[in-house]
Amino acid sequence: xxxFVILISGRGSNMQAxxxxxxxxxxxxxxxxxxxxxxxxxxAARGVATVVVDHRRFPDxxxxxxxxxxEIDKHAPDLVILAGFMRVLGDDFVRRFxxxxxxxxPSLLPAFPGLHxxxxxxxxxxxxxxxxxxxxxxxxxxxxxxxxAAVPVLADDSAEVLAARVxxxxxxxYVTAVRWFLExxxxxxxxxxxxxxxxxxxxxxxxxxxx
Length: 211
Ligand code: GAR
What we know:
32% of the residues lie in helices and 26% in strands. The chain has helices spanning 13-20, 38-45, 61-73, 91-96, 117-124, 159-182; strands at 2-8, 25-32, 50-52, 79-82, 101-105, 128-135, 145-152, 186-189, 192-195, 204-206. It has an 8-stranded mixed sheet with strand order 3-2-1-4-5-6-7-10, with helices on one face. A two-stranded antiparallel sheet has the order 8-9.
């Protein structure tokens, strides 16, 4: 059976969605860069091994990345799942785990990379927002897209309301992407993701009110 590790920095609701799903794989550990991450207690209560690699204990990013990579390597995972992991990872780290490093981002990439996506979406006045699961490459919030979910932006949305609408879809698409990976169905063709046995439409989720 394939194994995976999940990296978190905070609440860990995407982690919970993955651990709650019946997936053909085993979570070897949940690793956080923040000792107070709420998701750690949740994972521990579920009997999952938890580890903290506190970024503040390292003089620079390269040292932190090396310690994090060493911790991950102890578990020899097939897949590394970034689930609200809020540290930028360096090129060496990303290359080391290339092809087995997934991230969820709260926007329809390549639109709205970076932080505060929901506020940026409202400020821009766009009518469709969403979330993306992608393979991680050295460019921030970029990399081959596995699956996206779209949600409407409603006239009186606040950033919080919009974030909650997007988050619900993140949980759905992340579980789907992880399942596809663990089933060995994801391949990269010319830098684009193909899902064996699925039409391209399977990688697009439209929430009610769209399409
Ligand atoms: C999620 O919305 C995730 O997309 C975002 O942080 C939140 C974590 O929530 N990640 C990023 O912005 C990464 N660039 P969670 O801890 O409840 O899963």
